[in-house]
Amino acid sequence: MSRIVIRNVRVFDGEAFVGPQTVVIEGSHIGQARDPADGDEIIDGTGRTVLPGLIDCHVHIADEAQLASCASFGVTTGSTHARLFRFAGVGGDQAVHDVEEAAEFVRDRVERDRVDYVKVIADVPGHDQAVLDRICAEARRRGKMTVAHAAHFDAFPRCLRAGFDVVTHVPLDEPLMRDVAESMAVRGMVAVPTLTMMESFARSWVMWLLARRTMDFEHSLCSVHAMKEAGVPILAGTDSHSAGVLYEIPAGKSLHHELELLVRAGLTTEETLRAATSRAARCFSLEDRGGLNRDYGRISCWWRGIHSRIYP
To answer: What pLDDT digit, counting tens, does each position of 199-220 carry?
Structure first.
């Protein structure tokens, strides 16, 4: 089997930058260089970086074209999200009205749908606190991770009380205070801010008017900074979709912008890349991706030249 030998390339292994050095790609394996062999394809990697396949922790994939778009931008893994009530054929018999139905909801998702995690909208107006508490308790009892949709400030204390594992989105209406961020860190809560989506939402004049002109993207950036300072693990996610009426977030490309926004919010370059590789893989128990082994190992890998402040 012919190999690809990339010389003088910098490597981000999922945790830190190393190199420049020579790496070899052989089929689905990558490793440090051995002696070149006849038939090897030699590539000069000067000014380029090899890194694990990127992970988008919040995507909505509807077709193969979106998958191809993800692959073209180095996004090899995405955490897809479920159907929304009323908007995707979910009947009223599947809605949750009280704590008993909350238990049934979790049971059905785990036993019938074989879900990996349970996601709930925690914003107000919405479920009572008792329903959120019961959903989290039932999911924990069944060994499942819980994810909360929380796009407003008021949702975060509700998420903390219920004990969600992951919170996706970040407030536009007001920034998270230090005490909230510190409570998230103490509880071991993980954040997927989806700054790309929040920025698009704030730029939509229609949504700005509907929200009574209370949305400010700076609140989202300040919230991420507060979480980072408090030690909350932050993952990269975009909420990419192609069915938006008021705005659209393109699959794949948007994750690059998400990384730029995370840097703008105060994360270092390495922290940002970990958010889309090793840290994301650990959170979702993806043991076969998110990092590069120093010796040969089966991984999801992407390599290309990047010219931006994210990959200096």
So the answer is: 988 777 666 666 656 788 999 9
83: its two tokens: 């159907």
**What is the predicted pLDDT for the residue at 247?**
66
Handedness of CA 94, 98, 104, 107 (dihedral sign): positive
* Structure token pair of residue 40: 């090897």
Please report the pLDDT score of residue 244 as a whole number: 57
**Does 309 map to a domain?**
no
Give the chain's domain count.
2
CB 226 within 8 A of CB 181: yes
In a domain, 28, yes or no: yes
pLDDT at 225: 97
Mean pLDDT, to the nearest integer, of 279-284? Answer: 92
**Phi, psi torsion values for 5, nearest 5 degrees:** -110, 120
**Domain, as residue range, for 182:** 54-283
Within a domain: residue 179? Answer: yes
One domain for residues 147 and 170: yes
Strands (DSSP E) along the chain, which ranges? 4-12, 17-26, 29-32, 41-44, 49-52, 54-59, 75-80, 117-121, 145-149, 166-168, 190-192, 297-298, 301-304
Are residues 265 and 208 part of one domain?
A: yes
Q: pTM score, two decimals?
A: 0.85
